[in-house]
Amino acid sequence: MDRPTMPPAHRDLPDDVTPPGHEPVKYVVGPGDLTRGELRRLLADAGAKAAELSNLSRDDLVSVAKARKLEGLEVSGTGAVEARARDFLAVFSRLDRTVALPPGAELGLVLERVGDWAVVAETPQTTAVRVGDVLSEVDGVPCLLEAYDDTFKLCAAARRSRVPYTLTFRRAPFHKGWLRKKSRGRSASRFSGLTGWKRRFFVLRSGKLTYYEAEPPSASPGRNASKPKGSFSLARQCTVRIRETDGVLELALTAANDRLIVRGADAGDVRNWAALCTVATAHATGGTALLRDYERERLGVERREAERRERRRRANLERREMFKRQASERASLVAAQARRDALHSSTSSELLPEYKSDSRAIPPPPLDTPPSRGSSYRLPECSPAYAEPPPRPTRATSAEELRERFRNVGLSDLSP
């Protein structure tokens, strides 16, 4: 008789380890999603000098990486799961649902405190908010990183105000698909073959994994048409790990004394489920370090984007004001030139005939009027009675002329 074979050994998958005979869990993180340290490491591996990168900001490092056409940083193992989880966090942050309320109105939701978060516990059918969603903003003020008491004060102040207010909710992860589940409570063996694994349809919703024998008629949030075979809660500080057994990747979820082990179609499927369970655990437990770090980074990016938009808006306003001033100055110059032209035209038409340039229509001025400078007026011919005045005696210039002049002068002429 053959000796019984021991159950297959399994081990957690460390980083940078490829299970034999199976596709590794790897993921490429784009430059825009890397931290400053990861960007510096990526550029250093590409041949950039560390001294040139030390003083660059994260945005500058991203620009340099894109200019070098670097696809990103390849991570594996736990790093790949966390990188994929950050991608899902980015998707969920863009799916925030904002509800506008009139002054003093209540939303009709039941919020319960989970850590420092206000999580939706009950919701009416008429609202688009789902159970498990998290209150993320009150009147546009982010509150995921705030204490619960501060969030409660924001809600109370918004409700007491006399103006409409808004509440924004962050979507809880939702996912569904087929997985192979290991029987809980007993382990498979070589004798049982695949009898310890069963194919089940899993639905991740509101921080809970629920599985069915067949796909429910409607596996959408808020409606269950068939009875589930079981469930696994992620709201108990659940640990999400990827491990390898006989060259096959498995997703192991551990919470308290409960454990759930599933297998996916390939490494990418296992990685996606692991990342979604990581995000769901963060939502169900009031935030984890991964989610809070991402939220701080997201708010920082949004703040920088808002500052960049504000600078662009101010630059556009200044440019428009400059264009308006230039247009006003040009209009003023055109108007002044038009006024000068109109004044010249009206002045020319209103001049007296004697001041016009046509000399044939100008009567001669009187004799006692001196001719104007530049005019074509000529003095009339002298009359016969007009005689030239006697010439003035010239001044003596020599001694002989003086003796001749005083020789004919008598003493009587010299007496007073």
Automatic annotation (TrEMBL):
Residues 172-282 form the PH domain. It holds the Pfam family PH. CDD domains: PH. Signal peptide: none annotated. It comes from Pelagomonas calceolata. Gene3D superfamilies: Pleckstrin-homology domain (PH domain)/Phosphotyrosine-binding domain (PTB). Residues 1-14 have a biased composition (Basic and acidic residues). SUPFAM superfamilies: PH domain-like (SSF50729). Residues 1-24, 334-399 are annotated as: Disordered. This is PH domain-containing protein.
